[in-house]
Amino acid sequence: MADEPSAASTSTRFSPAEAVMAQVWEDVLGVDGVGLDDDFFACGGDSLLAITVVAEAGRRGLRIALPQLFEHPTVRGTCRASAHGGPDRPPARVDLLSPADRAKVPAHVQEVMPATRLQLGLIYESLMSAGAQYVCTAAHDIRKPLDEATLREALARVASRHEMLRVRFELGGFSEAVQIVEHGVEIPLTVADHSALDASALEKRTALVMKELGRPFDPETAPLVRFHAAATGAESYRLTYSFHHAVLDGWSAANLLHETVTVYAGLLDGDVPELARPLPYAEYVRLERAAARSEEAVRHFEAWARGEEHRPARAVPHPPRMTEFEARVSRADTETLFACAAARGLPVKSLLLTAHGAAVAAERGRPVVDVAMMMIGRPEQEGTDLTLGLFVNYLPIRLDLRGTTWAGAARRAFDAERELLPHRRFPYADALGIVGSRPFEVCFNYAHLRRNIQLVEAGVVARGQYSDLGVGIPVVVDVHNTGDGLAVRVSVDTSRHDAALGSRLLSRLLEGIRLMAGSPETECLPSTATVRRSSGERERAEK
Predict the structure, then answer these.
(1) Are 290 and 173 in contact (CB under 8 A)?
(2) pLDDT tier at 451 (50, 70, 90 boundaries)?
(3) Which fold has domain 99-269?
(4) Mean pLDDT across the stretch 102-106?
C-alpha cells in the first residue's frame, strides 16, 4: 500500500536521492512525471520490474532492498526506508570451494563454483527422465538478412560475456557437485535455407528443428545451448535455439535473445553497442547458500505447514506427458484488468494469481488453496538484470478466498507474496521437505519479458514465438504479458491427470480474470467453487 504522506511530509520538492529514484522509475516503467507519492504498482510496476528498479538504482548509487519497494512503493517511502538500511550486504566473498576442492580445479578453466540446489534438482530429474525434462526450445523470426559468419561472431561475443553459455557440471570428483566455466566454448550453430517453403511447410520444418535441438543434453559437457538459423527470405530468418533449464531461466533466455540479436544487428550495421557488464553468477550461489542456512526461513515454512496435511515428496518413475491448453485474454478484459490493478495500487500479477487461485479452489472444492509460485532470486547488485543463469525458485503460497471480494483477495495475494519475499532464495527442495508435496502439484508463473517486447517494438523480431519446455510439476499455469495482451497456457501431465483438467482450469481462469476485471467488488468465489473433481480424477491425482 502506498505511504500516506504525513503533515510533515507533504512537500513536493525532491531530495537528490528522490530525484534519482523518480528518474529510475520513469526509465524502467516508461512513464513521465513520477511524483513523490505515486504508487509503483499503480504506475505499472510488478515484481519483475521491481528487480530491474533495484538494479538500476544501484547503478546510480542508491542501495535499496526488494522488500522495501514492496513495503513502501512510493519514491518518498522507498528512499526513506533505504536511508534506514539498504539491502543486506552480499555474503563475504570467501572461496565457495573447500581448500581440497580448490586444489582439484584444472588450470585451464575460468571458474569453478558449487552448483545451486535447484540446478542439482533439475539435473537429477532430467537424468531420471533420460534427459526428457528441462530441455527448453524456442524459435523467433528475425527481420534481418541471415549471414552465417556474422551470426557465429555474434554468438561468440555473447558467449564470452556470459559464464552460463560456457558451463558444464561435474557431478563427481569434488566433495560436492560443481559447475565449471570453460574458456572459449563454441556455441553450436546449424544453418539452413527455408526461403522456398510455404507457411505450412515452414511450420512443419520448424517442428522438426525444435525436436532435433530438443534432444537431451549431457550436463557434464559444455555448452548446454544449441542454435539453428534458417533463412525465410532475403531479409529475414528464423532463429531456433534450445538450452538446459539448469543454466537459463525465462528472463535469462530473453536476455540471450536480446543480446544475440542486438550484437548481430550491430555487426551487420558496423556499429556494435557497448554492453554493460553482467554480475558474476557466483554472487547468486553465495546468496542461495546463505538462504539455505536461514533459521528464520525454516521457521516461516514450519509455521506455514502447521496443521496442514503433509504429503511427502515422491519420485515420479516416468517422464511427464505434458498436454497444453492455450488462449488469449480478450483485449477488453486485459485493458479493464490493468486499469483495476492500477486503481488499487496492485501489480497485475496479484490479480492474475487470485484468478488462478479461484480456478484451483473451484477444482478442489476448497476456499483456501496452497499452490507453488515461481519466485525470482536475482541478487540486488549492479549488473544482476543482465546476468544469464537460473535464478528462479518454486515456493508455496497460500491464497485465502473466504469472505472477500475479488479485489480483497488480490490484496491478500499481494500480502502473501510480500511475506514470502525475504525467503525467496530458500531452496525449493528444503521447502518441499518442510511443507510436503501438495503445494507443488500446481504452479503459477507470470512473465513479462520486456527485452523480447523491445525487439518486437523495434521491428527486429516478429511478434509471436514457438516454445516448448518439459517440466516436472504436474500442472503449470503460465500467463505471459506479450506487449499486446495476455496469453495463458495451462500444461498438464496426462500421465497423472486427465487432460480434461487442463481445459477446465483454463476456462475457470479466464472466467476469473473476466470477473476480476469487470466486477472486482463482487464475491470472489462463484458457485462453481463447490465443484469437485470426479472420484476417478482424485484417485489419479493421488497416484
Answers:
(1) no
(2) low
(3) Chloramphenicol Acetyltransferase (3.30.559)
(4) 93
